[in-house]
Amino acid sequence: MDVLTRLAALIIAILLAIDAFSGERSETVRVERHSHGARWHRDDDYRLHFAGGRVESCAVGWPAWSAWRDGDEAVVDTSRVFKTCDGIRRADEAMASSNLRGWLTLLPIALLLAAAFGWIQFERDLRAERRRWFG
User: Fold this and answer.
1) 58 C-beta neighbours (distance < 10 Å), count
2) Cα(129)–Cα(132) distance, rounded to whole angstroms?
């Protein structure tokens, strides 16, 4: 792998680690509208759209989608770098939250760091494969 690819992998891994393990940012927003996407091959998509904050919308489940009305105030927890929606609260009542996002990000971080340090090589030497098959 060339130097630029390894440097890009290192930078992406650092950004993912900062996003996953830095503290959440909470902001108060207003629910602007609801959207619903019906899918026959998997669960339906429910999304709340907000006004007055950094995050534009959050994917939620049916209970949270039906509990909020347009114009309601909500406290949205977002990540610092990529602005992903980590949770929605009304006062102290958590309506939707994703607790495992930081821990599930460890696998891509580890793969990118291994590629950046040269422990994983993604290119193959085609001449070595030809020698093995053709003698």
Assistant:
1) 26
2) 5
Exposure string over 111-122, b if 16+ CB within 10 A, otherwise e: ebbebbeeeeee
CA atoms of 120 and 116, how far apart (whole Å): 8
Which range (21-35, 48-62, 81-95, 110-124) has the least confidence? 81-95
Strand order, beta sheet including 25-37: 57-60, 45-51, 25-37, 73-78, 85-90, 93-97
Helix then strand count (H, E) for the chain reads 5, 6
Tell me the pLDDT tens digit for each residue of 49-101: 999 888 888 888 888 888 888 988 988 888 888 888 888 888 776 666 666 77
Tokens of 8: 């890009």
User: Could you tell me the pTM of the whole model?
Assistant: 0.67
The answer to whether 39 and 60 are in contact (CB under 8 A) is no
